[in-house]
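Re: that backbone. Tokens:
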């Protein structure tokens, strides 16, 4: 097959769209341009991402920019392909309208999550690295996609939460403004213990914990005269982005309290009951009866 025959084959008309003939060469050009367009897009996005990462740009901004570049690239590739094969965009006006109506009725949730994803990435009420509490799940945001947000729960399990759920429901963001978190430790001591000395020991144990902030200062309060104990509570602030930091500091303070109370002969209270019986009680020695 010589050059003229190849040229004639490539120029042969395959179909007609809006009175515009589509040749075999046009059809072969579409996958070629798609491959080149996708390669150029990925290379550009990777180059921009590396430069922004080097400059220590906020990862949320990088993520938003990546999504925007991909959407723009897809639009440019589609329009360019239509232009190369001489097909006007208006030729798909009716078809695209029909598809949009059908898609809108059949994929309302998908569209809702898609729009919600862009709102999350643009307004940034939730960012990558934030510690969230959604219903009973707690975890760190690892990725915000256009349809769902990926959260790594405190036990290591990954959750995919629809974006619309994060906007329409109540979400606790522990790190929205800062990483300051307040927590407390409660302890009960036996009646007869010196209350002021107990409060001083609790404050000492709290201040000795390295994670506890000096400002705002820890506060020890005498909460109540309980059924079986004198109830005290120490309240303090720490810098923490995960729930595990709270548990660790509470555990350390409790360990130290146990040591200090033992050194000062202070008894940690436990439930006690006084039982009063009317009448007499007869005790029978079963061992003697058997013998």
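Recovered sequence:
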């Amino acid at each position: 097959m010589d050059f003229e025959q190849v040229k004639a084959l490539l120029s042969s008309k395959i179909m007609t769209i809006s009175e515009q003939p589509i040749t075999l060469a046009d059809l072969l050009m579409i996958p070629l341009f798609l491959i080149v367009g996708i390669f150029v897009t990925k290379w550009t996005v990777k180059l921009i991402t590396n430069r922004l990462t080097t400059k220590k740009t906020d990862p949320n901004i990088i993520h938003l920019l990546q999504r925007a570049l991909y959407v723009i690239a897809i639009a440019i590739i589609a329009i360019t392909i239509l232009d190369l094969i001489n097909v006007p965009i208006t030729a798909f006006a009716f078809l695209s309208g029909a598809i949009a109506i059908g898609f809108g009725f059949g994929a309302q949730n998908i569209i809702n999550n898609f729009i919600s994803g862009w709102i999350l990435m643009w307004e940034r009420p939730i960012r990558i690295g934030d510690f969230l509490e959604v219903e009973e799940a707690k975890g760190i945001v690892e990725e915000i996609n256009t349809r769902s947000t990926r959260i790594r729960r405190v036990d290591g399990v990954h959750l995919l939460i629809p974006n619309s759920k994060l906007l329409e429901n109540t979400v606790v963001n522990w790190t929205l403004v800062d990483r300051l978190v307040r927590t407390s430790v409660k302890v009960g001591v036996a009646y007869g213990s010196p209350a002021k000395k107990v409060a001083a020991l609790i404050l000492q144990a709290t201040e000795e914990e390295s994670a506890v902030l000096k400002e705002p200062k820890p506060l020890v309060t005498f909460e109540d005269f309980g059924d079986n104990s004198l109830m005290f509570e120490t309240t303090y602030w720490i810098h923490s982005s995960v729930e595990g930091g709270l548990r660790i500091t509470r555990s350390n303070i409790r360990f130290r309290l146990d040591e200090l109370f033992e050194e000062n002969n202070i008894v940690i209270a436990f439930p006690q009951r006084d039982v009063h019986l009317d009448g007499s009680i007869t005790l029978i020695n079963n061992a003697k009866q058997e013998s």
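Residues 24-54 form the longest helix (31 residues). The mean pLDDT is 78.
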